[in-house]
Amino acid sequence: MKIVVIGTRGIPNILGGVETHCEELYPRIVAMGHDVTILRRTPYVSADNKISEYKGVKLIDVYAPRKKSVEAIIHTFLAIIKARRLNPDVLHVHAIGPAIMVPFARLLGLKVVMTNHGPDYDRQKWGRLAKFVLKTGEYCGSKFSSRIIVISTVIANILKSKYNRCDTDLVFNGVNKPNKSVNVDYLQSKGIIPGKYILALGRFVKEKGFHDLIEAYKVLGDCGYQLVIAGDADHEDDYSRKLKQQAKEAGVILTGFIKGENLNQVMSNAALFAMPSYHEGLPIALLEAMSYNIDVLVSDIPANILQCLSKGDYFRVGNVEELSARLADKIAHLQLQRQYDLSEYNWDKIAEQTINVYKSI
Q: How do beta strands 295-299 and 272-275 pair?
């Protein structure tokens, strides 16, 4: 089977939940005997990842402007034209923004599977026009896709109630069982004390709630634990600049965007993982933290409600006072090497489920 993938910035080593999803999923689908091509956005191709193939997945770079408001829609339009020339059996579109072009793809005769990674219009970074475009994308993807994959029951219920789309396929995000690092040289270079820090991970956008986490950490005072935030902004803006200043004033350690061994060290030695998000699809970063057996504290948004977590792992989203109190309680009663049941989030199983969706059309 020949599959072309659009809607992602690209792989490998490109920041983002959808990007991590694609980097894990498609090499497995290639290993199952299928032909996969990912159409990447040019602004995210650097000297480090300017390659034509990754673990058997073919990579083709298609122009996208480096402007947040139009990047996805222009790239998707051009990528669909490119995809038509490649003549795939299936075009797989990721996320509701790019899904605004699904009717165009269907007009060109392509069979389309769309993965809905969540209602992106709930993200606080978007203005009124962008939210309208994203909602239109959700509508177009829901009405015109041949099949729809959802990564959580929350998203499935949204599509059922809003568009009467009752035939969605639930396929979770996945997580690998890590080989934990025994090294600490990267931590030492950043002044991070192994086993004595709270870790957060993600892009510097408002809906990630890092501003709440920093404020809550300040309220704790001298708690004996550092706060480390790994990540950065795709597009530097007023929020990301203010967040970095806020972090500096609070003594928070910012690592920037890290992958590979450096990220492995940071995950392997964290005492607590915090996710104060206002919006998520199914957060891969949370699953990764759980795979490292780290105790967790997360906001109580629907996407974060997992069966393997308990009431004490949550705080009310946006409530800085409660977040600070829960941080203090977690630090006082840390569950070291905590065990979670992650059997539902196995990437090999997810690859098989995705192939079955392709075969259905």
A: parallel
DSSP annotation of 176: P
Let me know: does 149 contact 354? Beta carbons within 8 Å.
Answer: yes
- DSSP code, position 90: E
275 within 8 A of 268, measured Cβ to Cβ = no
Q: What are the percentages of helix, strand and coil residues in the chain, rounded to 5?
A: 45, 15, 40
pTM: 0.78
- Token pair for residue 40? 């990447």
Q: How far apart are CA 148 and CA 159, in angstroms?
A: 10
Distance of CA 281 to the CA centre of its chain: 8
For the chain, give the number of residues.
Answer: 361
> E strand or H helix at 226, and its extent?
strand 226-230
Residues 6+ apart with CB under 8 A from 209: 275, 276, 277, 278, 299, 317, 318
Give the pair of three-digit tokens for residue 204. Answer: 């510097």
Taking the C-alpha atoms of residue 307 and residue 14, their distance in angstroms, rounded to an integer, is 30
The tokens for 67 are: 């402007």
Mean pLDDT by 10 residues, the chain (361 residues): 97 89 96 98 91 97 88 95 98 96 98 92 77 94 97 92 95 92 97 98 94 97 95 90 97 94 97 94 87 97 89 96 97 94 92 97 94
